[in-house]
Structure to design on (431 residues):
């Protein structure tokens, strides 16, 4: 899948989470997503960026506009070198949180995107990739 | 060695320095006047001269306190006025040329002395230039911190819509620090006013994620403990769809699309109604102004 545009943003402070939201919104607007899809993408990005910061101890997100002749999409890859997720199934089930949150961030982000991949190894870090098509 | 630099025709050095600053890109006639620049330069030169005559080249030492003070005041005032860091540091760096020229005049015949003195004065001026940049940065940080605080306080107004009905129009990002202030302000106003209903309007909140939702739910729960019911209004269609996908349960919290809808509910709950007056019932304007309260029935 050809990458049209790509940019990396560091996630190390709560202000960076705000900056990621703004960057994702801007890209989504550029790619012609409608308002509902923009909001879904931005919200999913907000959840995952906060997870990267809060659980992963900081990391980065790669924002890519992708597309072939037929369709366009936005792909976000969040990566951290944190402790990893011990039980991915449990983390994805919803309502489970190790930090007093609502426990809906990861499962919510999955429902807000069209494609969702998560790789995590305890002690090595976590990588979450989501894609939403226009 | 460095003390020889000054003592005769200091006015010429000042003049050359001023010319350099006025001609360089660091001069901002819109932000600083020529007279003020001249005063800064004169103050700096006299402090600089005294510091050099002490023999010390440690700009962080006691002998250089007066020089640092001049630069502190100058950098802070330039940060306030919107100068860039390089424009601020140029104040020091533009002094190099007049001083190097002076050194050349003094040691024209002695190459070693010429090189040594130039190197020595260059080091001092570089340190002073970096010092101005540091002070400048610190002043900027202080300004930003102050503005953040101001925005925090400004952006959380609690307004009384009616007796017993408060509204809290939220605008911008709901991070933890802000939510804490929002919650405290709202709870305090509920106590002060004895309000029965508080409307939290999130029209101006661009993104509602699980953390924002959790903050809102906590605020509603806390207000309920104080005896006030909350209505959340300003839920736009895209936000509503997103909240559903996230799986956030708003439970028993009353939500409305607009602040007007929420206000209507609040009026009903407090036993009030807005009624339209027929033309023949309307009082003349002067009389109407005196009876405050409007169309309450």
């Amino acid at each position: 899948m050809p990458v049209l545009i790509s940019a990396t943003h560091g996630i190390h402070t709560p202000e960076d989470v705000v900056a990621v939201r703004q960057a994702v919104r801007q890209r989504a607007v550029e790619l012609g997503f409608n308002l509902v899809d923009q909001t879904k993408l931005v919200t999913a990005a907000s959840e995952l960026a906060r997870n990267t910061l809060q659980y992963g101890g900081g990391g980065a997100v790669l924002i890519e506009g992708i597309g072939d002749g037929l369709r366009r999409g936005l792909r976000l890859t969040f990566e951290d070198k944190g402790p990893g997720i011990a039980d991915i199934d449990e983390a994805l089930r919803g309502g489970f949180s190790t930090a007093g949150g609502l426990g809906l961030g990861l499962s919510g982000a999955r429902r807000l995107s069209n494609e969702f991949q998560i790789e995590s190894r305890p002690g090595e870090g976590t990588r979450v990739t989501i894609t939403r098509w226009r | 060695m460095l003390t020889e630099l000054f003592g005769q025709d200091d006015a010429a050095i000042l003049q050359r320095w001023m010319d350099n600053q006025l001609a360089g890109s660091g001069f901002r006639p819109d932000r600083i006047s020529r007279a003020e620049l001249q005063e800064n330069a004169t103050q700096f030169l006299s402090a600089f001269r005294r510091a050099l005559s002490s023999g010390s080249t440690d700009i962080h030492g006691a002998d250089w306190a007066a020089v640092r003070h001049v630069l502190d005041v100058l950098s802070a005032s330039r940060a306030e006025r919107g100068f860039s860091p390089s424009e601020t540091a140029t104040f020091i760096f533009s002094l190099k040329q007049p001083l190097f020229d002076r050194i050349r005049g003094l040691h024209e015949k002695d190459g070693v002395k010429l090189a040594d003195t130039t190197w020595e004065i260059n080091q001092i001026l570089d340190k002073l230039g970096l010092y101005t940049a540091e002070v400048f940065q610190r002043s900027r940080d202080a300004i930003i911190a102050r503005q953040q605080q101001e925005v925090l306080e400004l952006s959380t107004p609690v307004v009384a819509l009616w007796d017993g009905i408060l509204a809290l129009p939220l605008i911008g990002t709901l991070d933890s620090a802000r939510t804490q202030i929002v919650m405290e302000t709202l709870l305090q106003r509920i106590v002060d006013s004895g309000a029965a209903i508080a409307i939290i309007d999130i029209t101006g909140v661009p993104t509602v994620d699980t953390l924002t939702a959790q903050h809102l739910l906590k605020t509603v729960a806390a207000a309920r403990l104080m005896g006030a019911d909350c209505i959340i209004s300003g839920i736009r269609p895209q936000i509503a769809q997103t909240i559903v996908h996230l799986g956030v349960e708003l439970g028993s919290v009353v939500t409305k699309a607009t602040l007007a809808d929420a206000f209507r509910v609040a009026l009903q709950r407090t036993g009030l109604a807005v009624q339209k007056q027929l033309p023949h019932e309307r009082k003349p304007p002067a009389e109407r102004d005196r009876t405050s309260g409007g169309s309450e029935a």
User: Anything to note?
Assistant: Chain B has a mean pLDDT of 86. Chain B has two domains: 2-150, 159-275+282-290. The first strand of chain B starts at residue 159 and ends at 162. The two ends of chain B are 91 Å apart (CA to CA).
